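ok so I'm stuck.
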Amino acid sequence: MIDVATTSPELLTVRDLRKAFGAVVATNGVHIGVRTGEIHALIGPNGAGKSTLIAQICGEQRPDSGQILLDGRDVTHTPAFARARLGLGRSFQITELFAEYTAADNVLLSLLLKTGRAFEAWGNPRSDARLVEQAMARLTQVGMAERANVRVGDLAHGEKRQLELAVALAREPRLLLLDEPMAGMGPEESARMTDQLMAIKGQYGMLLVEHDMDAVFTLADRITVLVYGKTIFTGTPGQVREHPEVRAAYLGDGAC
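replied:
not stuck anymore, here's the structure
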């Protein structure tokens, strides 16, 4: 078996990233990398700095110091929209969809934004057969084709998370930042999302922030543990399970 964690080029490189809000240090010299085709999970207790780190990688917040490289290009001070154009896609802790529109319409809007045709978004994108075909392909990819014409407001929570993944994939990212995709899900929904992510594994580099440890240990090639804004360990799932500092700080003696 080929180990993507050691043989693939690095899509994302974060070096010594620091961010403070007054006396509160949210990220304190964070180092992390994501390689092509790899799922790299980021775990840690609440308040560890995970959301602040993701916001800096996306360009929503500027670090005080450190460096962010996207496919070898320094994007530390590049705006968020420009990072998206360079192949950075994201899903959010809280779904950000248009509730009054159908699942297909949400994916169509993402496709329009990708092609620079956002001015057409409030017209009738369904008249473009090529775009509709592309939207259906993305919905099929995440198991939502049969729900294409359902209004988002009428979808179940887990279905909205699947749709959000389709919306992100419509932008054809090279790197996906997945911010707690299982948040608010029950066991069956979490298992379904895990299956969906496993199905696209290897096609994208993914940085997965998640509290569902079953999903993390099923999906991840490598795991980085963040505690009090610092990366305390990076390793394979097996190494993380056995690391004494990780168990003491986060997993607990009876974990996994």
